[in-house]
Task: inverse folding
């Protein structure tokens, strides 16, 4: 295995923080804003996206020397759509209520720029195992971002977490947090927090 093909810790962790698809690269914001009104919806969408990232990345990498360059994007979309269909049927079989809560956003994973971007920029240029590790890291980073929003929105907007009451009876839910405007408020908060952390890290590095 050459140095460029070696799997390092950064191969996995870059999607968790340094290249987090939501908080750093600002990708896939449509489901981030739409389905994070509860923590369960956030987790389900994150797991489904991770499944598609890992499986499509593996197959794209495996076929990278076979797929003609002229039709690579169309081929990637067909591969991604296959695994999205599998995820769609799995969620429908596991929980019909969850499937209905996520609505069309499961099918829209096909056009999620995170998936196609990793297929084009990473999986098509690296070996299958490295593509799987990187895809898993990006998927977990996306899931982490979804949960950051989903937990805050559900706790403040409903007083519950994963459907279980966590706030006292006297707590008055802030219903705006489970409505669309709440998603923008919470996302803005997390973006400011991550920007502040990164700024402190840069200043600390310069001081050292």
Result:
């Amino acid at each position: 295995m050459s140095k460029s093909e070696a799997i390092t810790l950064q191969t996995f962790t870059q999607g968790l923080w340094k290249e987090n698809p939501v908080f750093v690269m600002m990708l896939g914001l449509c489901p981030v804003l739409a389905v994070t009104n509860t923590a369960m919806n956030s987790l389900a969408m994150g797991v489904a996206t991770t499944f598609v990232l890992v499986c499509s990345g593996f197959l794209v990498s495996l076929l990278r020397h076979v797929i003609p360059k002229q039709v690579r994007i169309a081929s990637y979309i067909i591969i991604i759509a296959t695994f999205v269909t599998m995820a769609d049927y799995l969620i429908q079989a596991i929980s019909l209520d969850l499937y209905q809560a996520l609505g069309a956003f499961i099918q829209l994973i096909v056009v999620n720029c995170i998936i196609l971007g990793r297929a084009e920029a990473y999986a098509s240029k690296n070996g299958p195992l490295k593509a799987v590790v990187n895809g898993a890291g990006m998927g977990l980073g996306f899931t982490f971002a979804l949960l950051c929003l989903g937990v805050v929105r559900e706790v403040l907007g409903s007083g519950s977490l994963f459907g279980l009451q966590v706030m006292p009876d006297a707590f008055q839910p802030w219903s705006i947090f489970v409505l669309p405007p709440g998603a923008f408020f919470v996302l803005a908060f997390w973006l400011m927090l991550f920007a502040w952390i990164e700024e402190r890290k840069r200043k600390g590095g310069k001081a050292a």
Observations:
- The longest helix spans residues 128-158.
- The chain is about 65% helix and 0% strand.
- The radius of gyration is 19 Å.
